[in-house]
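Hi Y.,

Following your request, here is the sequence exactly as I used it, all 260 residues.
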Amino acid sequence: MNSELKKILEDVKDGRISTDEALLRIKSEPFEDIGYAKVDLHRKIRQGAAEVIYGAGKTPEQIRGILAVMRKHGQKTVLITRLSAEAAAEVARDCELDYHPDARVGITGPLPKPDGIGRIVVCTGGTSDIPVAEEAALTAEVLGNEVVRLYDVGVAGLHRTLAHLDDIMSASVIIAIAGMEGALASVIGGLADCPVIAVPTSVGYGASFGGLSALLSMLNSCASGVSVVNIDNGFGAGFLASRINHMEARTGGTGKEDLE
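Below is the corresponding structure, written out as tokens. Let me know if you'd prefer a different format.
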């Protein structure tokens, strides 16, 4: 069960809100049509995380309009990805925007207190991979996770990776981000006992084919427990890592727990 819906039910149980108020929150208009966008207002209740604004291809006016609807309906923190510096300057006219130019990420509102089951480690093969890593790390932080950053720990100097074994071995989820041949994901996957999310980047010389070489290497990893997202998809990796880091144990209602 997602955390937002669970919180509503717990508030009813503890008497903090009435059943009528809870019903109103659940039955409220599922989206608002503003012509160029249908803003999903039920996503946080359905999935535990509010809609994220994808900034690329949208005008600053469109982003400001979507943002206004979300804030009007009580969304305190909003993540905007792939946001150009020029669009960020326009959006910032209407609200307080924390803009991260390296990751092309904008955040309105405060970061939530981490409430995941553990820590997410975000590591990169090189410094050139940091923009994608920051997109992943900021996404995870907006979704309520504690994030540890390990940058420039690629296999060209394996001692740099091994110097952080404590962080790697204590993580709940690891995001391994690398271009070139993408070997970092296999190395991390062979060390860690948690899920590893591999992110190929478009960093590399001609034969890296814009990240395709790293993508194929990661898909062919011999390390168990490694999954792969698309090239340069830091947001997707951060979102998936947050989902994993917020999983709860489920009994499934089989009754087996009563026999133990």
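Residues 26-108 form one domain.

Thanks again,
Q.
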